[in-house]
Amino acid sequence: MIEDRLMRFFESFHSIYKDNYRRLAEILLRAYEGDVRGLSATDRMLVNDLLEVIRELRIARSSTLHEMRDFILRSSPGYDYVYVVDALGLPELYGLWCEAGKVKLIPILKLFVNSEANTRAFKEVFGCEDLACVAGASQGMVLKKMDVLIHDIMSGESRSRYEIIDLIVARVKHVTLELPLVKGNTMILSDHGYDIVRVNSRYIATHTHGHRTPLALAKIAPVILLKRIH
Ligand SMILES: [Zn+2]
Fold first, then answer.
1. DSSP 8-state class, residue 130
2. Mean of the pLDDT values across residues 200-215?
3. Alpha-carbon span 37 to 47, nearest angstrom
4. Ligand 1 center from residue 37 Cα (angstroms)
5. Per DSSP, which regions of 45-96 are E strands?
6. What is the pLDDT of residues 106-125, one digit of tens each?
7. Cα(150) to centroid of ligand 1, in Å?
8. What is the pLDDT of residues 2-31, one digit of tens each?
9. Cα(176)–Cα(101) distance, rounded to whole angstroms?
10. First-to-last C-alpha distance (Å) of the chain
11. Number of neighbouring beta carbons within 10 Å of residue 65
């Protein structure tokens, strides 16, 4: 299962690199490229673990958004805070998972599949016109301020390897700073993620088809549960 695989990857990465988000971004690009040249045995293992997740998602056809909706509607009353964020990628998920541990919150990650990786499919399942409506249904709020920065990466602009790594790290830092993690039991959910696609020797962050590379991590619609330890 994708969820178990990703958790194993997070745990292995964390045991070596902790909150080194730059290293995470590098491993991510290597995984997309299937390139383990010159890497240590540990890094090769990390790249291969992540590559397995990418492969599994590439072939994932059926959405589990209905299950996601049921889960959210059923569980959200038990949370003090519910945040809906547009396009939360794998690096940000790791960042939240990692930072939660630092402030003694137990992070639980539930992954659902949005096979089209778009906001529309997600909103439809809730019978909603926008994400604010989805947030309303789950007694939560949309973090608008975050949307802007989050979509900045997906402007369609291609970037150098160095620039895209910088941007990923900046987003992880932004998301983990912007979300108030210490206030109480918190649920964070997102409609889809994004992929990093290489076009010639430049990189684009995207969650749409059209770059000849099948969608993968963009299909992840995550729910992150952060619980206080009593
Ligand atoms: Zn979206």
1. S
2. 85
3. 11
4. 34
5. 81-85
6. 999 999 999 999 999 999 99
7. 10
8. 999 999 999 999 999 999 999 999 999 999
9. 12
10. 30
11. 22
141-142 and 202-206 beta bridge pairing: unpaired
Q: Which amino acid is at 53?
A: V
The tokens for 223 are 């729910």
Q: Ligand 1: distance of its center to the CA of 229 in Å?
A: 32
Residue 84 in contact with residue 187, Cβ under 8 Å?
no
Q: Which residues contact 226 (CB under 8 A, 6 or more apart)?
A: 96, 100, 105, 106, 107, 108, 181, 185, 186, 187, 188
Long-range contacts of 69-75 (CB under 8 A, 24+ apart): 69/125, 69/126, 71/110, 71/112, 71/223, 72/138, 72/187, 72/189, 72/223, 73/137, 73/138, 75/187, 75/225
Cα 158 to ligand 1 centroid, rounded to whole Å: 20
